Amino acid sequence: MHLTVLGINHRTAPVEVRGQVAFPPESLPRALDELLTLNGVQEAAILSTCNRTEIYINQDSDSDASVETWLCRFHQLNPTSLEPHCYTYKESDAVRHMLRVAAGLDSMVLGEPQILGQMKDSYQSALESGSIDTLVSRLFQHTFSVAKQVRTDTAIGASPVSVAFAAVTLAKQIFGEFGNQTALLIGAGETIELAARHLHDQGTGKLVVANRTVSRAHELAARFNGYGIALDEIPAHLAEADIVISSTGSSTPIVTREIVEAALVSRKHRPVLMVDIAVPADIEPGVAGFDDVYLYSVDDLKQVIEENMRSRQEAALQAEEIIDAQVDRFMSWTRSLEAVPTVRAYREYAESLAQAERDKALNQLENGKSPEEVIDTLTYNLVNKLTHNPSVNLRGAVAEGETGLLEAVRTLFRLKGGQDK
Hints:
about 425 residues, Beta Polymerase, domain 2, Rossmann fold, six-stranded parallel beta sheet, 10 strands
């Protein structure tokens, strides 16, 4: 059995190439079935995300299966266009790669947790397709366990390293719980979408999205049980907002000092957090002069993110040590599988001898022999037959100079006593 990982990711290929080899969920069953038809492939699983596509296989040692050729054929691609972007890992390197991916050490954002859920989806798809068995299934389970250990024993995911997450984390530090808070998000781009998701996941009481294109505001807000408004409606809704996060492409400020001053009066000067992620600024800097406003710029957040990234990099070093140890542990388990056929054959051999002696013993009892005599005969014959071949072969090996076999036998049978004469 030989483990192999073939992959392409954000480090080795641009997004256009990654998109060409992605597997939509509905195509996975057919893809996994086809992989199992390749010569020597025993097990197969596929991980496909926006940043990577990876194929995990267990194949025979003499397999000539070209998974890369199959990947190009499946997606109707020219092999020469894909080859420069692919990487391959085998055996312990394949195990180490899977553990690093699951722990977020190979992600675009160091330590991001989403990849672990995506790997669990990959495992579930392979299970449902029946394309994995003992080895790859055990590897996935080991991978999940190690990823959990990395999260528990290091600070790899403790500090936010995206602007959106940092903004929401800052809000949480100020307000604690979000259940009674209203958040106003200005804009509808990727950063605002991420902020909306984080706020929703934290249980924010009310979510309002303001955007130049109102239909886009409604669309984004509806996904998180909120509602959308136009930019010119902000003055009418700003007083409701405890948290304001803004990220638009406007060349002039959208939230002025006058608008905020009026909102604070309506709020009876209850504090409000404002996070301006836009460049140039969406919120007039003068707003920071109000006692009841906590205004943070994108530069403020970037400093936090840089510090947090350094913290994650230190945690990543600890994670690598954990992974190294767990690779050795998994490879030890795979090596133990090599003994399984021999152990099974030996047990079958012993059971066949025992069955033959049992049949003889029953026959002797039927012919009137005493139970004591039958048991003595059975015991003698069984011990003699179980030890005859090993004894003869051991003497022969030692006579040929293979003295190391003596220590192996002592270890195997846990024998104690003096040295052989």
